[in-house]
Amino acid sequence: MGYETVIGLEVHCQLLTDSKLFCGCSTDYIGKEPNTNVCPVCLGLPGSLPVLNKKALEFALKAAIALNCEILPYSHFYRKNYFYPDLPKAYQITQYDIPVGRHGWIELPYSHKRIGITRIHLEEDAGKLVHPTKTGRIEHATYSLVDYNRAGVPLIEIVSEPDFSSPSEAREYLMELRSIVQHLGISDGNMELGSMRCDANVSVHREGEGLGVKVELKNMNSFKALERALNYEVERQIKLIKSGGRVEQETRHWSEPEKKTISLRGKEEAQDYRYFPEPDLLPIYVDEEILESIKSDMPELPANRRKRFVSMGIGEKEASIMVIEKSIGDYFEEAVKYFGDAKSIANWILGDFLGELNRAGLEIQDSRVKPHQLGRLLTLIKDGTISGKIAKKVFSIMFDTGDDPDEIVKREGLVQIVDRSEIEKVVEEVLSANPDAVESYRKGKANIFNFLVGQVMKATKGKANPNVVRDILQKKI
Amino acid sequence: MELFELPAWKLGKMMESGEVTAVEVVESVLSRIEEREEILHCYNEVYGEEALQEAEEIDKRRKGGEKLPPFAGIPVAVKDNICVKGKDITCSSKILKGFISPYDATVIRKIKSQKMIIIGRTNMDEFAMGSSTENSAYGVTRNPLDTSKVPGGSSGGSAAAVASGEAIVALGSDTGGSIRQPAAFCGVVGFKPTYGLVSRYGLIAFASSLDQIGPITKDVRDAAAMLEIIAGKDNYDSTSLPVKVPHYSTMLEDDISEIRVGIMEEYNAEGVSEEVIEGIEEVIDIFRTMRVNVKSVSFPHMEYALPCYYIIAPAEASSNLARYDGVQYGISEETVEDIRELYRKVRTSGFGKEVKRRIMMGTYVLSSGYYDAFYLKAQKVRTLIRHDFERAFKDVDVIIGPTSPTVAFGIGERTADPISMYLSDIFTIPANLAGISAISIPLFKDGNLPVGIHIVGKALGEIDILKVSYKLEQELKERGLYHGI
User: Fold this and answer.
1) Does the residue A77 lie in any domain?
2) What is the mean pLDDT of residues B194-218?
3) N or C: which end of chain A has fewer CB within 10 A?
4) Catalytic site includes residue B149
5) Average pLDDT of B59-83?
6) Are residue A227 and residue A112 in the same domain, yes or no?
């Protein structure tokens, strides 16, 4: 009998507002001297009071609209009470019974499955603990340090319905979600840097039976880690059930180096957060006017952009890849302005360009090759100045230097040879240097022809126009 | 008459005309502190030298022909739960020992901009939890009118300072009566403004939905002037009201014949002392002779106010006081096994008994499984109490009753029985629950301890309250029921 998997995700995204959720401190805390990006409010000093950042609310509403949520005209903040040194007030200001939005959905780009969004709400981030040991782990530390630079940075939490039946679906959702927040311009969705974080609830059950016991998974810091952690956990649970064991309701931690999940705490250790309405903040009223102005200001979202790319002649899969990372889509659209053949641009971006970027560990927006230069390179191929093969070489130099393709072609003498007499000369030389090959071709070994083309190309350092070479060879042989 | 006996408005005029200097005023108050403080213990700290320096500066500027605000140079005492930049602030708790505020509360910014002189921080019940100023980690404050009695609380230090002349005016905070009840016990004027009229930014929170800063003064005119200074919309407090502050002090002498006065029917309920009942009846009589129509109004949910308050206030307090954990500021422990031990040690030794009691009550009523039965129910009761007032205010504009069921009680008399202590605020708590304005003004009779006359107004009904209490104060003076200090 088979097993079915049920997964739900809780995703936190840091919002790209200028200031924190309840004070004027900057949200740009990464790399700053510890505890310098703080004020009485985000430190939770006695007597300080929170004041809501309206921009953060606007961003949360944008997300709620993009995720097809019901927007609630009235919502409010709650206090979630618990003790932890990274939480300066000993409570987190968050939302509880009435979030900004609820009952939304998202359609997955590949499987086209519709995933329900339970809710989306606004809350503040905590500070960070630093454990000064070699491992950086709390169990090896004799003391810990606290850095409140991040405390109070605005987050949205997006809770999905338990609608995923496989780890790959969960990953697809997370990537689409990231693309949406990137397109909205409300979060950079960087999992490695922690501006997008993901927890998962996982359970398995035998086909046809009721739902299994769910386990909460934490600490997946990349898309790959999410998928790996979910796969591991699904297998662990199935194995456990098969061997007659029982899955415990607990929270488990994904260890990337060990490639396994480790029990963090059981159900009985679950805390009572004593939620109650935050008396220091007024209720949030979202009237039609605000909503309309946000709606009228919505940027193009990934689903639409994909469709538009397809209509430009791009394959569905290629379009998806370019949209899933907003910056690639932006680059593509910019390059198309300089070279009208969208399909060629897409092929170049998804081929050589992404390859070079991966090797160099760069993001496309940080590349030295600018969209107009890529467009120009493709123009040089199209007008016959260089061959496709030479273009790869030119691109590689462009990637390293950022120089214009025209300049590289000129400097390196890479202009294509189209002069027949010049090529004929080389063909003659190749034929006389390879009598055996000519012989076997004539005896019927047709694939020797390509060898001879290759020899001519080699002799011209790839500069000969391959079509002309073929034409001449055919006639001469 | 000594300078420390005079109200701020009089001293302000005298300083402006050059009759006295700010240095003379401050010296007078400091000498009074010298004389009385050892017995009374109004202050946790006095800023004597700084106050004199500031006074000299003010005199110099005035001499140079500069026009200064009317209260420039007036010594003001500040309750030890309002943040003053660069100064220690303790809430009379051990847990905050050594903490120096890096910022000014909004009200402090305002009094500083008026060039008022902060003379010291006053003793209080720890975290404003109490009605006698006996719950202080730094010792009790005594009532200046009878040093065997409590000054009331929690703003007992502020009230005693104003009553004794150890300050000219003071700031207090009122969560369930903490300005009005000590004002009543010490025979001074205490004003709790409408919730949101005065910014809470920089007031160390006890119960956020109830807390409000207000003035304690020698007379109604000073109360009006102080309110004018500290009130107003503040962008640092989301709950502050977007209203323009009226010029209260210019309206005091306006005619009150249009104001409808109500008497709280429950003023002679069980537990209200004879002298308090007599005091209220005296006031009713005064209004009658003034030909002010006095109407009786009832509060059907009055009896639920105290239990309702003792759910909501501790619930909020349990959350507000959770931040005192020994991590960032205040007392801490150097060597502990883990973070839990740090929390346990710091909070066990740092908080006093009453604070612990309320944290436990608050934690309990917010716990899952009890939230609906206690906290949610209390919020509904709070709405009913608000409705009681709304109903009453259809017929009247202000409501008169006692501030507290008794006059000042003896030190140590109620410390063993928290309920008897809580009952001291039974008449003041409803105004906090409803978020409306209220004042206590003193009535002195036959050399007895004063009775606090409580006048409650609508939300933003400050003008009505001030006008009525000003008139009442004049009448009390005429009848020899006014004391002054």
Assistant:
1) yes
2) 98
3) N
4) no
5) 97
6) yes
Q: Is the pLDDT of residue B83 over 90?
A: yes
Q: Are residues A470 and A428 in the same domain?
A: yes
pLDDT at A24: 97
Q: How many A-B residue pairs are in contact by the CB < 8 A criterion? A: 101
In this structure, are A77 and A145 located in the same domain?
A: yes
pLDDT of residue A133: 81
d(C-alpha B351, C-alpha B96), whole Å: 9
Query: Would A295 be classed as within a structural domain?
Result: no
CB pair distance less than 8 Å for B323 and A48: no
Q: Do A276 and B238 touch (CB under 8 A)?
A: no
Q: Is residue A195 part of a domain?
A: yes
B79 in catalytic set: yes
Neighboring chain A residues of B202 at a CB cutoff of 8 Å: 47-48
Query: How far is it, in rounded angstroms, from Cα B182 to Cα B214?
Result: 13
Q: Does A48 touch chain B (CB under 8 A)?
A: yes
Task: For chain B, list the domains and their CATH numbers.
Answer: 3-261+396-478 (3.90.1300.10), 302-379 (no CATH)
d(CA B46, CA B43): 6
Domain that holds residue A54: 3-290
> Across the interface, which of A47, A276, A282 has its CB nearest the CB of B105?
A47
Nearest residue to B256 (alpha-carbon basis) of B471, B94, B15, B442: B471
The mean of the pLDDT values for chain A is: 93
Q: What share of chain A is helix, strand, coil (3-state, %, to 5)?
A: 40, 20, 40
- Check A47 against B202: CB less than 8 A apart: yes
Active site (annotated) includes residue B345: no
A271 burial via Cβ count (<10 Å: 0-12, 13-18, 19+): exposed
Residue A296 lies in a domain: no
Same domain, A68 and A156: yes
* Complex ipTM value: 0.96
Model confidence band, residue B350 (pLDDT cutoffs 50, 70, 90) = very high
Q: How big is chain B by its Cα radius of gyration, in Å?
A: 21
Q: What is the pLDDT of residue B485?
A: 60
pLDDT tens, residue by residue, B262-320: 999 989 888 999 999 999 999 999 999 988 889 999 999 999 999 999 999 999 999 99
Nearest to B325 among A47, A90, A282 (CB): A90
CB of A83 within 8 Å of a chain B CB? The answer is yes
The Cβ of residue A329 has, within 10 Å, a number of other Cβ atoms equal to 25
* Chain A partners within 8 Å of B81 (Cβ): 47
What's the CA gap between A108 and B418, in Å, rounded? 62
A175, A317: one domain? no
Q: Note whether A347 contacts B: Cβ–Cβ < 8 A.
A: no
Give the pLDDT confidence of A210-236 residue by residue, as tens digits: 999 999 999 999 999 999 999 999 999
Confidence of residue A1 (pLDDT cuts 50, 70, 90): low
Count structural domains, chain A: 3
